[in-house]
Amino acid sequence: MPIRVPTELPALEGLLQENIFAMDMDRAVQQNIRPLEVGILNLMPNKIETELQILRLLSNTPLQINIRLLRIDDTVPKHTPVSHMNAFYHVFSEVKESKFDGLIVTGAPLGNIAYEEVLYWDKMKELMDWAKSNVQSTFYLCWAAHAALYHFFNLDRVVRDNKLSGVFEHKVRNKKHELMRGFDPMFWAPHSRVGEVKLSDYAKVETLEILADSDDAGVYLAATHDKRMVLVTGHPEYDPDTLASEYYRDNGLGLSPAIPENYFEADDPDRDVQMRWKSHGNLLFTNWLNYCVYQTTPFDLSTLSESV
Q: Strand 158-172 to strand 186-196: parallel, antiparallel, or no bridges (unpaired)?
């Protein structure tokens, strides 16, 4: 949240020059405050687990948020009870006339499937186009980030020879960007994917800025200049044991997965997990809610216009 200081206080100018968010009295008294409307389009198979991971991160803020859980269609999920879906989820077609302050679109285990062969690709394209006019800022995670890059910017992913799995060190590219406020210059974040969009391809899009990347994992975070679209190729929401569960699952299926890098102590699956991404995961979601949603969204959502 911003600190509120007298309009004429000399320190205000210094704070703003350091890119610290401060609000003068004149702006503070003009603010209208209401709960934020945030949708979560959950594409993951185990929807209950993913709900908890994301809601935990969204709760780490003093902002009041109304959450609506969304599903792309009414297909019966394999790993979530139908009763849970019917009780708590809205099909996308039911909310198309609504507007949201923020929308989070999760990843999906579709990295080896061409976008056009995804069963719900047409509906996914419709939703992404809808978000441009009906959502102030959309936060795309992992597969969804690559899907958005493909749909909006014609940037196709390359399927890696081996799955990228582990926790990797990243460098902040622009320490003054709102999404990067409070980040250490170097930070860790988990990845679990087979697709990759090359850094050189991101650079072809003038409206995109790369905010954090890794020598080993490539681009981690990018955003459009208007902050209406935030693209995260990793999984800041993952629990400490999520990568371990994926590894043991794939190992049990005889897939001979590589041990997640920089994850188990001494890279030994029989030893404890090194949890070192929690603080930056929380900070990323908090910054997104504050600077990309709360600070930019109109008080009257009906006046929300299409992003360019």
A: antiparallel
Sequence-ordered alpha helix ranges (H) in the chain:
10-17, 25-30, 47-58, 82-88, 92-95, 121-134, 143-153, 199-202, 242-252, 278-287
Instruction: Please name the amino acid found at residue 202.
Output: Y
The answer to whether residues 26 and 7 touch, using CB atoms and an 8 Å cutoff, is yes
pLDDT value, residue 230: 98
Which one of 146, 170, 191, 235 is the catalytic residue?
A: 235
Is residue 142 annotated as a catalytic residue, yes or no? yes
**Domains contained in the chain, CATH given:** 1-31 (no CATH), 32-236+277-303 (3.40.50.880)
**Of 142, 178, 196, 292, which is the active-site residue?**
142
Q: What is the DSSP string of 202-246?
A: HTT-TTEEEEEEETTTEEEEEEETTSSEEEE-S-TT--TTHHHHH
61-65, 142-146, 149-153, range with the lowest pLDDT: 61-65
What residues form DSSP beta bridges with 193?
164
CA–CA gap between residue 15 and residue 21 (Å, rounded): 7
- Verify whether residue 237 is a known catalytic residue: yes
Cα-based angle 298, 301, 302 (whole degrees, multiple of 5):
125
| Catalytic one of 146, 237, 280, 292 | 237
> What pLDDT is stored for residue 3 in this prediction?
46
What is the model's pLDDT at position 305? 83
State whether residue 227 is helix, strand or coil. Answer: coil
- pLDDT by residue (tens digit) across 3-12? 444 566 555 5
Distance CA 126, CA 77 (A): 21
